[in-house]
Amino acid sequence: MTDLRQCWADGTATHGLWSLLPGAVTAELLARTGADYVVVDLQHGAASEADLPGVAAAIRSAGAVPLVRTRSPLFPDVGRPLDLGAHGVIVPNISDAEHAREVIAAARYAPDGGRSIGRLSGGSDEPLVILMVETATALDDLDALLALNGLDGIYVGPGDLSLSLGLSAPDRRDDLRAVLSSIIARAVAAGVPVGVHAYSGEDARSYADEGATIVTVAVDTVSLTDATTRHLDVGRAHRSS
């Protein structure tokens, strides 16, 4: 498996996939593409915590790092995926630096944090903790957040951030893009790994060109729909001709 923490410390970009579909077979297929990491989304995806031991093992056996976006930033929701095989968590709905400090502590054993001992399957002795910046309050407190001990990276959710900032309208797209670029630049200047959620390799590459090193290049549901639609269009064109 790729040592994500070391790659980011070296300034090397890592490339991963985001999974909303359930099942170990799906997870293994994604990991076998050569991705550095696969994120299992418990917040909006169809997988459940009960799936995690098998899913994480399948990702790991195929050579990728299993990460989990947690259901919430609550204490049990942060620690439980780490007990069930995740090598790191991406935690949503961070409100500010003080909240972020509490979330980091939920993923660390004492004396660095308050995580309860009870790891059941796989996992990591030093799990990655990546916090999502997707609210106006987190953005307002970004400098303090970036300075926190124990933070392995930040991950920007452009959709929710656009809603929080009032920039979701199509004519505000350039304004949102400027905000995203500013976040990347500030994280890079602070020496903190940063990623921006993307649904295509083209978008992901544009963020990487600005310095992002947590580079999610595709989401399984989007890629499946796009590829299937393309094949249907080709097949139907042949039939109609």
What does this structure look like?
The protein is of the alpha/beta class. The protein has one domain (4-240): TIM Barrel, CATH 3.20.20. It contains 11 helices and 8 strands. The chain has helices spanning 4-9, 24-31, 52-61, 75-83, 97-106, 136-140, 142-146, 158-165, 173-190, 201-209, 220-240; strands spanning 14-19, 37-41, 65-69, 88-91, 128-133, 153-156, 194-196, 214-219. Helix 2 packs parallel to helix 3. The longest helix is centred in the C-terminal third of the chain and has 21 residues, at 220-240. The chain is globular. The chain starts with a helix and ends with a helix. The model has no long low-confidence stretch (mean pLDDT 95).
Largest sheet: 8 strands, parallel
Share of helical residues: 40-55%
Beta-strand percent range: 15-25%
User: What structural category arises from helix and sheet content?
Assistant: alpha/beta
Q: Gap between N and C termini, in Å?
A: 48 Å
CATH topology type: TIM Barrel
Relevant CATH superfamily: Phosphoenolpyruvate-binding domains
What's the total count of β strands? 8
Q: Which overall shape is indicated by the principal axes computed on the Cα atoms?
A: globular
CATH class: Alpha Beta
Rounded to an integer in angstroms, the radius of gyration calculated over CA atoms is 18 Å
CATH architecture: Alpha-Beta Barrel
Question: Notable features of this structure?
Answer:
HpcH-HpaI_aldolase; metal-binding; TIM Barrel; Pyrv_kinase-like_dom_sf; 11 helices; 241 residues
